[in-house]
């Protein structure tokens, strides 16, 4: 208003909002500003004949100043307007756009000192830096701003001083505000237990591992974490206690001291930022009365960044839309999309375009036309103009060229020519056999579980990190989803111990007693999860009751009964003459009847055995159990099966239409119950034809059914002797790969999904397919092969 000499009386007052704005401005307008001093100075200027104005990218306000100077004799040096050659291109995305420009410069042998690149968006700066360095094209960014960690630290300190919120405290820790040895353990403990940092950490001191879901090892680790976290808490609280300071100026001084203490090895850039922060605080010092006043400082502090001005120019000059650089032949305008170009700055906020429309200030149309004229001035300064834009973003959203550019170029864009030569980079991960033996072999054995061997097959590199380098995966805290399966395992084990084959008829009171004991043990360790545990307990009881109902039908039709539970085994499989696998594990359940055993393995979700996966060593567990049971218990194996404890979602279809006669048949409840049992059948491999001992009506095992003669048969009967022979070969092959030092980072399709080491290896390639390690033939089946074993 003062620049354009507009009085308060000229402001609009048609609406309530306009009247209030006018009242406010009327009160503050008399305050002297820099513009008042400038206006007075302009009146004293008389002769400007010695002033020369270099033409550049000016705003409408700048133009008014230039007119004043010109009216007093100043001279304008016009920009050159050479004859111009134009080229108009598009690229797939911003990265390929910059890549194509780099190739264009090299292919056309352009002199880097004769090139200017105008970026329509600042997001292109890191692309220019990355790609031009790779192509060894010299360049200079005229202005480069980057965020400062010093600024972020002070902003986080103020935010925490205002809120005492846990997230703001974590933000301070992440920014490196506090200098403490145990910050990582302190943060982990607070995240796990959601506790107050000003209260001592000691609730685990008297907790005993009296449950079966959380083991003693995990409790011990948590207690060790608590002890370290308490040391860190006491150290940090000495600093945080000063945040409660009543004297605001003392508090601000304390915050600055913390900031200063963290800059013992600061760069000159960081020191400059700290100085700017102190200037802002100093300027507002006399106006800080309450803590809430600190919030007004935040926008000013956040604007402080590291600004690198150019001291020496070499190579390609990279600027933005408001920088006009003549005297260079080739001008690349990059990223000229409708979103980025011309980037006209419209007004928003209290004094938005709607408000300005009712004033005598320049309206949006006037400002826009002048702004476009300045953009055109930039486009016409160089003799060779190359304009490009990306057709899409990295997310796949489409872009179009700016309308102003289309009118300027007066031609359709063509694809930016780019040479692509992508080579697959294969990094070999291998260690020397001597190193592999030192890492994996302990006393002539490679010790571990079957799941560890399967892990090696899924991804050798993951196995190397876990069992070679002994990198520990993060502990699971609270009640992880996997614990639901552990709870079901333990409940089944307890009920079978107490009731034998009648476990499915256990009283709900006894089941609740078992579950309550486990829930209380977990709640004692994680008291902040007590409410969640009640919800989980209710969910579990409902689900477990349904599981027992299904298993009751299974047990009714099985003449076999529980024989062993959680059977611990130790078994060796030879690799070389002096080295073998020493496998340790637990078999969930072994049922028996007469001279037959049956392996039953509880799973938290539906699972089936695939021949290809079994002999590719991706599913070793169930059949290894069969081999162990056969060797150690000296009875024939009837079969090995998975029992899913998960309740599948079964749609209840109201009915279905029939054609002849046309009508609607409603679904009976018995049909629905049959669908439930069918969806929850156990799955696995049958090895003996006496399968009716386990399923007398052929309706409880996938691949087993009763024929029209009332005989229960399996589609396939697998030969135990062949399985045993091939598994010996499998384990020998796997062991030799380990001993050779093969730790390839070549995961299969499922390896990375839940891998804790994914961020370490950062695998970005294509998943590898695992093929059988033995040649599968008809000797796997009874009586001549799969054709005979298949049931029509």
From TrEMBL:
GO annotation, biological process: DNA recombination; DNA repair
Keyword Nucleotide-binding annotated: yes
Boundaries of every PD-(D/E)XK endonuclease-like domain copy: 449-762
Pfam families in the record: PDDEXK_1
Keyword hit for ATP-binding: yes
InterPro entries membership: P-loop_NTPase, PDDEXK-like_dom_sf, PDDEXK_AddAB-type, Restrct_endonuc-II-like
Keywords: ATP-binding, DNA damage, DNA repair, DNA-binding, Exonuclease, Helicase, Hydrolase, Nuclease, Nucleotide-binding
MF annotations from Gene Ontology: ATP binding; DNA binding; exonuclease activity; helicase activity
Protein name as catalogued: PD-(D/E)XK nuclease family protein
Lineage: Bacteria, Bacillati, Bacillota, Erysipelotrichia, Erysipelotrichales
């Amino acid at each position: 208003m003062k620049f354009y000499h507009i009085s308060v009386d000229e402001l609009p007052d048609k609406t309530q909002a306009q009247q209030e704005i006018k009242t406010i401005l009327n009160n503050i307008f008399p305050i002297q500003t820099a513009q008042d001093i400038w206006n007075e100075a302009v009146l004293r200027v008389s002769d400007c004949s010695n002033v020369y104005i270099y033409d550049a990218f000016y705003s409408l306000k700048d133009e008014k100043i230039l007119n004043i100077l010109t009216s007093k004799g100043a001279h304008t040096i016009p920009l050159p307007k050479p004859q111009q050659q134009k080229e108009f291109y598009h690229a797939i995305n911003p990265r390929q756009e910059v890549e194509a420009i780099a190739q264009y410069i090299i292919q056309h042998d352009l002199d880097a000192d004769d090139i200017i690149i105008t970026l329509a968006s600042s997001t292109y700066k890191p692309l220019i830096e990355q790609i031009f360095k790779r192509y060894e094209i010299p360049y200079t960014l005229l202005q480069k701003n980057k965020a400062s960690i010093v600024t972020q630290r002070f902003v986080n300190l103020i935010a925490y001083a205002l809120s005492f919120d846990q997230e703001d405290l974590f933000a301070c820790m992440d920014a490196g505000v506090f200098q403490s040895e145990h910050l990582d353990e302190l943060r982990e403990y607070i995240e796990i237990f959601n506790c107050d940092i000003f209260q001592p950490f000691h609730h685990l001191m008297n907790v005993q591992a009296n449950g079966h879901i959380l083991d003693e090892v995990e409790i011990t680790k948590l207690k060790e974490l608590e002890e370290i976290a308490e040391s860190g808490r006491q150290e940090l609280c000495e600093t945080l206690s000063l945040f409660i300071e009543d004297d605001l100026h003392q508090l601000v001084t304390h915050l600055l001291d913390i900031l200063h203490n963290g800059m013992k090895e600061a760069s000159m850039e960081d020191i400059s930022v700290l100085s700017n922060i102190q200037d802002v605080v100093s300027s507002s010092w006399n106006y800080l009365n309450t803590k809430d006043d600190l919030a007004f400082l935040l926008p000013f502090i956040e604007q402080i960044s590291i600004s690198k001005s150019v001291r020496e120019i070499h190579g390609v000059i990279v600027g933005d839309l408001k920088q006009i650089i003549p005297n260079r032949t080739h001008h690349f305008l990059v990223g000229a999309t409708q979103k980025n170009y011309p980037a006209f700055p419209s007004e928003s906020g209290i004094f938005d375009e709607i408000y300005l429309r009712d004033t005598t200030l320049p309206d949006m149309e006037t400002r826009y036309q002048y702004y476009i004229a300045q953009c055109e001035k930039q486009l016409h300064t160089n003799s060779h103009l190359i304009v490009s834009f990306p057709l899409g973003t990295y997310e796949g959203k489409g872009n179009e060229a700016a309308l102003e550019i289309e009118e300027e170029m007066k031609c359709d864009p063509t694809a930016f020519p780019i040479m692509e030569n992508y080579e697959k980079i294969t990094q070999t991960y291998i260690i020397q056999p001597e190193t592999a033996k030192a890492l994996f072999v302990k006393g002539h054995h490679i010790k571990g579980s079957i799941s560890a061997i399967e892990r090696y097959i899924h991804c050798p590199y993951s196995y190397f990190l876990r069992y070679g380098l002994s990198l520990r995966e993060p502990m699971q805290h609270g009640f992880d989803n996997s614990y639901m399966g552990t709870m079901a395992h333990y409940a089944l084990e307890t009920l079978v111990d107490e009731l034998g084959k009648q476990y499915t008829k256990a009283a709900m009171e006894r089941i609740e007693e078992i579950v309550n004991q486990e829930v209380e043990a977990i709640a004692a360790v994680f008291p902040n999860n007590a409410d969640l545990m009640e919800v989980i307990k209710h969910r579990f009881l409902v689900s477990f009751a349904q599981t027992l109902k299904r298993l009751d039908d299974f047990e009714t039709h099985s003449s076999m009964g529980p024989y062993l539970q959680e059977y611990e085994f130790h078994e060796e499989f030879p690799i070389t003459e002096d080295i073998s696998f020493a496998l340790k594990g637990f078999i969930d359940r072994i049922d028996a009847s007469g001279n037959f055993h049956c392996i039953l393995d509880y799973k938290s979700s539906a699972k089936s055995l695939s021949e290809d996966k079994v002999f590719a060593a991706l599913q070793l567990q169930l059949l290894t159990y069969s081999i162990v049971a056969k060797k150690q218990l000296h009875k024939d194996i009837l079969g090995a099966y998975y029992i899913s404890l998960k309740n599948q979602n079964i749609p209840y279809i109201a009915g279905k239409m029939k054609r002849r006669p046309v009508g609607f048949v409603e679904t009976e409840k018995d049909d629905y119950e049959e669908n439930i049992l069918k969806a929850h059948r156990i799955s696995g491999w049958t090895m003996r034809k006496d399968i009716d001992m386990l399923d007398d009506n052929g309706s409880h095992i996938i691949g087993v059914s009763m024929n029209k003669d009332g005989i229960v048969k399996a589609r396939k009967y697998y030969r135990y002797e062949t399985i045993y022979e091939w598994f010996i070969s499998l384990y020998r092959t796997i062991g030799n790969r380990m001993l050779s030092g093969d730790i390839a980072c070549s995961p299969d399709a499922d390896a990375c999904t839940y891998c804790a080491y994914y961020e370490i290896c950062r695998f970005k390639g294509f998943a590898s397919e695992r093929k059988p390690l033995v040649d599968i033939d008809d000797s796997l089946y009874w009586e001549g092969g799969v054709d005979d074993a298949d049931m029509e």
